[in-house]
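Worked example

This section walks through a single chain of length 183. The input is the sequence exactly as stored; nothing has been trimmed or padded.
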Amino acid sequence: MGACGLAADIPSVLGNESLRISFSDCRLAGVGARFDVFDLVYHGCVVSYWYWGDYNNKLPALWSKRDLFNALYGEPPMYVVTPDNWPQFRERVFASCRVAASSSRLTAMAEMTDHRILTADRTVQQTVFDSGVRVTVNFGAKDCVMSDGFLLKVGLSRIDGAKKVPHAIRAAESASRQVHATY
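Given that input, the structure is written out below as tokens.
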């Protein structure tokens, strides 16, 4: 059990087994065990961030993965920069914003209504919001063909919205809305 003593068995959509999670630990868990109960319940009325001591760029090796979690949960990114590290982080912050901030702009006042695990290895996940926005991310090691034939490449997110055309977000292409997240 987690620090708060809350735990639950979450039924798997992929079979009869269930996943034992601790609500207090779900934000720290790995991709396969992570289930954001807080945002599923409160996204429509609270803006959630990484806590102040744990921000997107704290561990550069995890930065891209955190960008994908922000996109999945519709949360704005958070960075800590100083005059000394700004030259080092500047371009990466801009690329990160293109990944992480896109879905938070579209879902800021929306209720998260669903969080789906789409692959057996739990690395392709999707959230759905009452605004009609649907965010799908691929944390996995291989590309994933979506049910509509769309190829979601490794480290990318896809945002489908009520008034938006589906797009992938890829970082290296700064001229477009696409930002590639590598981790």
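What to look for: Residues 86-107 form the longest helix (22 residues).
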